[in-house]
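Our preliminary data section would be incomplete without showing what the modeling component actually yields. Below, a chain of 165 amino acids is followed by its predicted structure, encoded as tokens that our downstream tools consume directly.
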Amino acid sequence: MELPPYVPKVQGDFLVHAVGILIADARIIGIGAGGSFVSGEMDDYSDVDLLVVVSDPSLCTDIAARIEIASRLGLLLTCFTGIHVGDLRLLICVYGPPVLKVDLKFVTADDLKHRVEDPVVLYDPISVPYIPVPISSGSRMRFGLGSYLVVRRFGGASCSKPRRY
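Predicted structure:
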């Protein structure tokens, strides 16, 4: 897989390895890159945003299955869902060393009708519907945070007084 010259080595190495692993999974029917990959503004501190198009809709909500997939892509230090941004399909992962944050968003082909950006297609063996069709500015989906999305990600105890280090 050839990547654009603006993709830094760490992110590029991860992308080449991850796409190679993901395409071996029969449930994955497409892969797109988003974020700074789309804008061409990746730098050494950029994360990687991957849109993983799946044939089985249950994979979009099966946390254990998504973590298992994420663990195959590298040394997975930690991960959590995107519930705090209103999207349970999102799995936010931290790999390392070197440390790299990777957002894996698991979607079906139908989900691609409602997206926030046009991804760069990295893998599309069956011409997944909607990936190559640009979205108009009026159809972009935006997420808002409601009070129900405020969650404690680190357990049930309330926060103690801030400490200075």
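The beta strands are 28-34, 48-54, 76-82, 87-95, 100-107, 120-123. Helices lie at 9-22, 36-39, 63-71. Preliminary results of this kind motivate Aim 1 of the renewal.
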